[in-house]
Each structure stands twice: as structure tokens, then as C-alpha cells.
Design brief:
Alpha-Beta Plaits, FAO_M, oxidoreductase, Gyrase A, domain 2, 24% helix, nine-stranded mixed sheet, 40 strands, 28% strand
């Protein structure tokens, strides 16, 4: 019987285990294997049918080490390392071989993107060679080299047999004490009153302290029985296998033709042609066969026609090859094309490993290791914030939202990964009450955590469509004008999407003092820029705290990490504390008025004294604007004099209208989030998940000034103290400015110090104020990242394989003392 209540009294258990993993595919086998390797000797795995049934059995088995970011490459590169050693360790053959990957580029822009990714490989000591069309043909004789601009060859990549690899992980897990039970379908599960988990199978009830859901497609619905919301949706995934063809040999590299939406791999003398077509086919769970362990769906040649046509273009010999198998199987996808691991918010000791977007074999080893280390260590041991299950907003479980987005997400695998690319589907979910006003002003909207946000503003009557580029996207023209207005007059930005949490209660101050590195026990009306840290001193949140009263604090965080921030705070509220957390994001619209004329503009619509003495920087006041009472925070994220106005939502349009009318004669301009990114980067303001992550400390990030060492204990203080007492730091966030004004920095570009790779750009922009690209990135140097190293070294930034001279500084290149915000 399935209950609607996620919490029930304990039933008498047939057996108990410390950790119970549900799912016997690559995700479940990997986490069990790594739990055992990390010393957990009481682990059990339940598989409803047989190991690898579900989706693992029909995976293509491609192994790629280099991904589009350093963080993902850190996870992916481990797969080749582990799979290469599994047979020797377990005695189970895996079919793993390093036959390499050949990624071809049909366009110059694709080749440029490919070269950028090849640079990332160098950070990890991985071979990645950009080669000519003729060189590519030597490696793959059947290739039609006339239609490509070049290629990347990664000899350490390869392929593996998914079934055998999963079996090897299971064998290794068993060897280290893990119990694996096949044909053990979970018919019910619940959480007990004392926080354990119990599941019912045909053989009785099993209890566990820690439950891991690694059930692929079925994770969402199984988690829902516990009250957990996991945004997953299925899609059909296709490949065909040809007859034996003459040009195939075992050493033939995997061919990836992303412009053609296809990959080709050797398969026992045949060719497997797989696709990530531009637009996939979403698959509701109710359309899956109910009692089938190894699911195969109906052929769809109409849908597969485009990728098959492209496959024949790139390898003409396929035109004469017969097809022995057309396979169509289900895979699960997430809304952002990143898998999810971690502890489910609000559900202690409930972990998830799912949503691999048809790349479970490629990420399974690294993700399983990361999750096992989290479970064993009580916290992540590496930066996995970008794949943390806590990153999602509750609305993203909506089935219509997922159904509409999933076809586009599948296609993103092989589409160009343009900087600032915007998804088209499941849009218009969350809108500011000012949305229509921004639209009338020519806003080009982008999406962040479901919010429609102005990214840039077109000229009167001009198109708001994005034209993407690695050099000069079409919005640069308009964004430069917005940045110029911010530096010389004033801009108005909509920051309503920023997360807002109200912390209240008798123990609110004590709680936040323990959770934050900065001192939040300040007078009412003071604003504190601070951070919440983990036990290693790593940065978990990047927030502003506004003290509203003795027992009330308003916490403001970025929209894209708002759910994760909430989960972090809730995780630390104990029953003994008189503390409540309320999400008040929708209660306030936020207008940010920034620029040297912002005081002049705001003074026309309020009777409040806005002078420096009456209204200092980093303070907050309730003031009247027109007929509205608003919370005015004197803050900036662009490096200028300005106020962030928190307005009751129902009065926001009124406030906007009168501020806009007052400001237009003084040069006020609407600005979008692209301008915000360019302006904050000029001032070297950090952004979470780019410049700040859980593996970076405040000292390394150059934010030591935010720490209050004298206020008493706080999470992470001991680790920071050790680091403080062992200077110089071996890792520091450094600002860079290119000498050449033409190249554009985005992120992930390599940093070289006297020729050696010492880090990569965490965030970069074309600075319209300075006239060249600037960026920030962590520099690693065993002898210490000192002022002397910065001053006396030759600095270069590698972009797509080319080196560009740069200046380096521990301070911002624009207004390093922050004088403009305080004038």
C-alpha cells in the first residue's frame, strides 16, 4: 500500500543496513562501490529486476574526459582512470579501451569552441590536439574531410561496455562487503518518526539510516513518495547499428560530429550511429511499458532521418551499409542538462544520484565517488555545488514544465555552447510585476531560475533577438551604452529575482552569528555583506544581511542560488532554536538605481535625506517614494553610488513610473543583466558559483575584510584560522587585464605564469569602461601567491590555444578603493 504521508511509525524490520541504495544501474553500482572503498561495510543495493536493467544496459558507453568546464572535467576524467583499472581489481572484464575521441568541426566557430575545450584539457594533463582535416582523415579514413574545418583528437578517451562496466563495479562492491539484492522491487517506502528510512519489498521491510535513490527514470516518482521533489523527465534516445563495414577496425576512434548531431563508435566490426538531435522527444512515464525490465520503444525513422543523413554526410560509406538494429530507449533529463547528486533539502540522510542526461557512463564513476565521499565525510569533499540536487526551485518538478523543456535540453548536448545562451522552452514562468514596462522599453529577456529578466535593451524598433558569438554578440552594442550610462549618469535595473529570506525569532541573531563569518549583530538599519561557510572554510553562500529589528533579518542572495541558500540555512536550524525562515522573494519587487546621478534622481521622488551623513553607504532605511513605503538599501553591485529599493510588489509599478519619469531628463537608462555582469566585473565584485565556491575560502577570495575574527565562534573559523596562520596563501583570486583589446574573456580560459598553467579565469568580460577584456581567476603557486609574484611574473591568458599578454593585480582595475560608491 502506498501512503500519502512521508512519515510513519517504524515497522518491525526484517533486516537493517547503515546505507541502502535503490537502483542497480551505473549510478547505484558506482556509489555502492565507492562507499565500500571509503570504509562503509554495511551497504545494501536493491534492484527491482537485474543489474543494468532500466537504462544502463542500452547506453552507448562513450568515455570523454574533457568537458566544457573545469568543474565537469574534474568529475569526468576520473571515469577513464577507474574504468581502466576495474578489470585488474575485480576480475570482471569491462570492455574498456582507449581508442580515442575525434571531434570534428564543420564550422569555424565550432572549431573555436573545440579549441577552447582543448585548452581545458591542458589543466589536467590530458592530451588534446587540434588537428587539420587531413590529419583527421588519417585517423578516420572513411571521414569526409572536405566538409570540416578541423578537429580535436583526444587519445586518452575511448569506450567501454556499459553492462560489463556496471557488473565490474558491482563485483568490486561485493568484494568489499556490499550486499546486492536483485529482483527486489520497492513497493513502498517511508520515513520513520525518528528519521530512519524503511522500504518494503516482496521479502519484507528493510531499514536504513541513509537512503540513496539512484533509480534513473524512476527516481522522481519514488522520491515523491517521501515528499521529495526531484525534477526529472524522460525522453526517447536513439541509435542504430549497421552491418559489418569494411573500414571499421577495433582501434577506430569514436567520431563526434556535433554539428551533425551524431556520434559514431566501433561496435564489433560494425558502426553504432547515435544521436543528440536538435529537438528530442519527451516521454511521459505513463507511456513506458509497465512490466518490462529491458525497455525498447518503437522505431521512429522520421525522427532519426536528420542525424542519419548527417552521419552519411560525414562518413559517406554508411550510405551503403545495412542496418541490423534500430534502438529506441528511454533516458532521464534535468531542466539544465546537469546531473544531480546530494542530500535532498529538508530530508536528512536522503541522497539522490540521478538525471544523467544520457551520460551516466561518462559521469557515473566520478559522481559516485563524489557522493560516497559526501555520505562518508558528512559534507562534499569537492565542489559539486553546480550539480547539487538542492539547486532546483520547487516549481521545476511541474510535469508540463519538464515535458516542454526536455526536448530542447536533449538537443543542447551537441548545440553550440554559446556564452549567455538562453533556452527557449518553458519560459514566462516567473515574471516581475514590471515585466511589461521593461518589454515596452525594448528588453531582450533571459531566464534565471524561471524568472524572465531583462538582459539588454534594444534601440527603438530594433530586434531583441540574441545573435550569439564568442567575439562580439549583438548585444555588446547596447550593453556598452548601458555601462556608459551607469558610469556617467544612472541606470535602473530590475533585481526582483534576487532571493529574499526573512529570518525571525528570539535566537535569530545568535543563529546567524554562528552561521555567518561576518558580524551581523549590528544596529538596526545596517547592511552586512557576509558569507556562510562549511567546516573547511569554503564558501557556501554569498549574501547581504539587513537587520530589520532585534529579532528580524532580511537575507538577500542571487536568484540562481536562492534554493540552495535556503536549503543550507534550513539544514542548520535545530529544534532547540527559536528561529523561523520565510521565503519572502515574491513580497518585494526590487529596483536598483545606480550611477553618479542616482542621488539627484531619487531626491526628486522622496523627502528622505539621502546625503552621506544622513544615509551612509551599507545602511538601510524605510523611506517614502511617491505614495509607497519602501526599504531603501544603499548598496551597489556595479561600483557606483546607488540604492536597491525593496518595494511591496503591489506598489512597484507606481514607484517605477515616478522614478523613471524623474530620471529620464538626467540621462537615466534601463539596463539589463549583461550590463550588471560587465560592471560588477570591472569593480572585481565576486559572483557565487563563478568566483566563489565551496572549495574557495574568504582569504583566498580576497574577502578577508568580511570576516569578524573577534565575535566568537562561527562555522569554518577554525579552518580559516589555520590558513591565516600559515601565510602566504598558495591560492588567491587575482584580477587580469588583457593588453590586446580584441579577444573576449568569458570564463574557463587558462592563466599562465611565466609559461606555466597556474589556474583559469572564473569570470571575465569585455570591459567597455577600460577598453579591453578583464577577468578574475584563482592562481595556484606552492611558494605562495604574493604581491612579489604578481609584480615580477609574466602573465598570459590562453584562449582557444593562443596566448595573450595580461596585467595581473590583487585589486580591481577600476576604482580599486571603492570611492565611487561612497561619494
Amino acid at each position: 500500500m502506498i501512503t500519502n504521508s512521508p512519515i510513519r511509525p517504524r515497522e518491525l524490520s526484517v533486516r537493517a543496513h547503515e546505507v541502502l541504495v535503490i537502483g542497480g544501474g551505473i549510478a547505484g553500482a558506482s556509489v555502492a562501490f565507492h562507499l565500500a572503498k571509503n570504509g562503509k561495510n554495511d551497504v545494501a543495493v536493491l534492484e527491482r529486476n537485474t543489474l543494468t536493467s532500466g537504462t544502463t544496459w542500452h547506453a552507448a558507453g562513450l568515455i570523454m574526459q574533457t568537458r566544457g568546464t573545469h568543474a565537469l572535467t574534474e568529475i569526468a576524467k576520473y571515469n577513464a582512470e577507474l574504468y581502466a583499472a576495474l578489470e585488474a581489481e575485480t576480475g570482471q572484464a569491462t570492455g574498456f579501451k582507449r581508442n580515442g575521441t575525434l571531434g570534428v568541426a564543420r564550422t569555424k566557430q565550432r572549431l573555436y569552441e573545440t579549441a577552447r575545450n582543448a585548452s581545458i584539457a591542458k589543466s589536467f594533463g590530458l592530451e588534446a590536439h587540434i588537428i587539420s582535416p587531413s590529419d583527421a582523415k588519417e585517423l578516420y579514413p572513411a571521414l569526409n574531410a572536405s566538409i570540416i574545418e578541423g578537429a580535436v583528437y583526444i587519445p586518452g578517451d575511448g569506450q567501454t561496455n556499459p553492462v560489463d562496466t556496471c557488473m565490474a563495479l558491482a563485483a568490486g562492491a561485493r568484494k568489499n562487503g556490499v550486499k546486492i539484492f536483485e529482483n527486489s522491487e520497492v513497493t513502498d517506502l517511508w520515513r520513520t518518526l525518528d528519521g530512519c528510512y524503511q522500504v518494503r519489498t516482496g521479502e519484507g521491510v528493510i531499514e536504513a539510516e541513509v537512503l540513496v535513490l539512484a533509480c534513473g527514470l524512476w527516481t522522481r516518482d519514488l522520491a515523491a513518495r517521501l515528499g521529495a521533489r526531484i525534477p526529472l523527465y524522460a525522453a526517447e534516445h536513439f541509435y542504430v547499428v549497421t552491418d559489418t563495414v569494411d573500414f571499421v577496425k577495433p582501434t577506430l576512434p569514436v567520431l563526434r560530429d556535433t554539428d551533425g548531431h551524431v556520434y559514431l563508435k566501433e561496435d564489433a566490426g560494425k558502426i553504432l550511429v547515435g544521436a543528440f538531435e536538435p529537438w528530442g522527444k519527451a516521454l511521459p512515464m505513463e507511456k513506458l511499458p509497465k512490466e518490462t525490465a529491458f525497455i525498447e520503444l518503437a522505431e521512429d525513422w522520421d525522427h532519426f532521418e536528420l542525424p542519419m543523413t548527417k552521419a552519411i554526410e560525414i562518413v559517406p560509406a554508411l550510405a551503403n551499409a545495412g542496418i541490423t538494429k534500430f534502438f529506441n530507449g528511454p533516458e532521464s533529463f534535468t531542466p539544465d542538462l546537469l546531473f544531480m547528486i546530494g542530500e535532498v533539502p529538508g530530508m536528512k540522510n536522503l541522497f539522490v544520484s540521478a538525471g544523467y542526461n544520457s551520460e551516466g557512463i561518462e559521469y557515473g564513476a566520478g559522481a559516485g565517488r563524489a557522493l560516497a565521499e559526501w555520505i562518508v565525510g558528512g559534507a562534499p569533499q569537492m565542489d559539486i555545488s553546480f550539480v547539487d540536487v538542492a539547486r532546483f526551485h520547487p516549481f521545476q518538478i511541474n510535469k508540463k514544465y519538464l515535458h516542454d523543456r526536455t526536448p530542447e535540453v536533449l538537443g543542447l548536448h551537441y548545440k553550440m555552447h554559446w556564452p549567455s545562451h538562453q533556452l527557449q522552452t518553458s519560459r514566462g514562468v516567473r515574471k516581475s510585476v514590471l515585466h511589461d514596462r521593461w518589454a515596452k522599453l525594448g528588453a531582450s529577456f533571459g531566464e534565471g531560475m524561471g524568472w524572465e529578466r531583462p538582459m539588454w535593451f534594444a534601440g527603438l524598433g530594433e530586434s531583441t533577438e540574441n545573435v550569439y558569438s564568442y567575439d562580439e554578440p549583438n548585444w555588446f552594442k547596447y550593453t556598452s551604452q548601458e555601462c556608459n550610462a551607469a558610469r556617467n549618469n544612472a541606470i535602473l535595473l530590475d533585481q526582483s529575482s534576487f532571493g529574499k529570506h526573512l529570518i525571525q525569532g528570539r535566537d535569530a541573531c545568535r543563529f546567524l552569528q554562528w552561521l555567518c563569518a561576518g558580524n551581523v549583530d549590528v544596529p538596526v538599519g545596517n547592511l552586512v555583506y557576509t558569507h556562510m561557510l562549511n567546516q573547511k572554510g569554503g564558501i557556501e553562500t554569498d549574501i547581504t544581511v539587513n537587520r530589520l529589528s532585534k529579532t528580524e533579518f532580511l537575507i538577500i542572495s542571487s536568484a540562481t542560488v536562492h534554493p540552495r541558500d535556503k536549503a543550507w540555512i534550513e539544514r542548520h536550524i535545530t529544534d532547540e532554536m527559536s528561529v523561523t525562515l520565510t521565503d519572502v522573494t515574491s513580497a518585494y519587487a526590487v529596483l536598483s538605481l545606480q550611477g553618479p546621478r542616482s542621488r539627484e534622481i531619487l531626491s526628486q521622488v522622496t523627502d528622505a535625506n539621502l546625503g552621506n551623513e544622513a544615509f551612509p553607504f551599507a545602511t538601510s532605511q524605510e523611506i517614502d517614494i511617491g505614495y509607497a513605503r519602501v526599504i531603501a538599501n544603499r548598496l551597489t553591485y556595479v561600483g557606483e553610488l546607488g540604492w536597491e529599493l525593496h518595494i511591496p510588489t503591489e506598489m512597484a509599478q507606481h514607484v517605477f513610473d515616478i522614478v523613471w519619469e524623474a530620471g529620464r531628463p538626467l540621462g537615466l537608462r534601463a539596463a539589463g543583466y549583461h550590463a550588471l555582469e560587465h560592471l560588477r566585473s570591472e569593480r572585481a565584485y565576486r559572483e557565487y558559483q563563478l568566483d566563489l565556491t565551496p572549495v574557495d575560502t574568504l582569504l583566498e577570495a580576497g574577502l578577508a575584510f568580511t570576516i569578524d575574527w573577534n565575535k566568537g565562534g562561527f562555522i569554518g573559523k577554525e579552518a580559516l584560522t589555520v590558513q591565516k596562520n600559515n601565510l602566504p596563501l598558495k591560492k588567491r583570486l587575482v584580477s587580469f587585464k588583457l593588453h590586446d583589446p580584441n579577444p573576449v574573456l568569458f570564463h574557463e580560459e587558462l592563466i599562465r605564469c611565466d609559461g606555466r598553467i597556474v589556474g583559469y579565469i572564473s569570470s571575465g568580460v569585455k570591459s567597455f569602461t577600460i577598453g579591453t577584456s578583464i577577468g578574475m581567476g584563482y592562481v595556484h603557486h606552492l611558494a605562495g601567491v604574493t604581491k612579489e609574484l604578481i609584480a615580477n611574473s609574466r602573465w598570459q591568458i590562453e584562449i582557444a590555444g593562443k596566448l595573450y599578454e595580461a596585467d595581473a593585480s590583487l585589486r580591481a582595475f577600476f576604482d580599486p578603493n571603492g570611492d565611487r560608491a561612497k561619494r
